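Re-run requested by the PI after the first attempt was lost when the workstation crashed. Everything re-entered from the original request form. Ligand of interest: G3I.
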Amino acid sequence: KVTLKEAFKGAFYAGVAINRRQIQGADTKGRELIATQFNSISPENDLKWSSIHPKKEAYNFKPADDYVDFGLKNRMFIVGHTLVWHQQTPAWVYNSESGNKLSRDELLKVMEDHITTVVGRYKGKIGGWDVVNEAFNDNGTFRKSDWHDIIGDDFIEKAFEFAHKADPKAELYYNDYNLYVPKKREAVVSLIKRLQAKNIPVTAVGEQGHYGLNSPAVNQVEASIIAFTATGASVNITELDINVLPNANQQINADLGNTADYQAKYNPYAAGLPDTIATQLANRYAALFAMFYKHKAVISRVTFWGLTDGDSWLNGWPIRGRTNYPLLFDRAYNIKQPVFDAVVKVAGR
Ligand code: G3I
């Protein structure tokens, strides 16, 4: 039986985000499935700032080291995620011990130290880095964050410069979601051109693929791939998953809790995914992969954001305690045959 990495060999890497239980915990089945099916890994959380550098003077390298060792052992393309982000970053990063915000120069120094240490440690092992994650709003303006407030628009450029210095051979990516939204897409095209004009290497745009069953339209995503690759950069489809559940608002946790109403309305497939929805999911994945495959010359990697449905962050977002089915493997580590088959068929397998 064909595996994902065999099916897409010569087209793009088949990637997956992996978690702590799979890296160093009891999830042997998960580890085996990852090694069998995928030839690239991303760390779901273990290389984020709060995990790897929780205190100013204290790094927590062990989970990241184990993650990298797993990838090396299995000869995978290893991704680093992520160096500069507004989430999962401890408060000490932006504040002095007396509680005042750092100056631009002080924060740049903290950024440089972190990037130099983390990228330097995995030099030649981690093949590419999500240098900056989610810096723009959907309307194309800079997202409000301490990074932007304190350093200014060039915080992205600086992060790329530091990363390039720490490992000149590593690929460097800008990663974000909703990049099919035209204003956001244009902001990222401008960013890439700005970096290129200053001779700051940027390898690819990471397009997070957190999609729904019906939106975005495949041609909107395609338009963004065309726009990004027109700059000469390539594209990685990162964080791919397809949410099959109805939209829910974060308030619902507090308002309804775990009542029967809540379950019926917002968690409708707790007992299993109906065939009709499984078919929609297969068709949706097939349509997306057909488009990715068409652009395989400029797409380097397609990475799922999680291994099995049970691992997915979408069981807990935007409200907790749901049963989602966004991926290609079920909660018992089985291939979801119709969905998986629809995907590999795109590559003629
Ligand atoms: O590790 C702690 C654990 O010790 C604690 O008991 C538990 C209680 O809440 O929390 C655990 O940390 C959680 C962590 O995942 C590891 O499971 C955090 O609360 C939780 O917030 C964190 O969520 C991650 C999220 O990023 C953080 O914003 C998700 O797993 C991860 O899938 C998600 O990934 C992001 C990408 O990095 C960037 N793009 C969007 C994507 C989805 O949000």
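Saved to the shared folder this time. The first strand starts at residue 13 and ends at 18.
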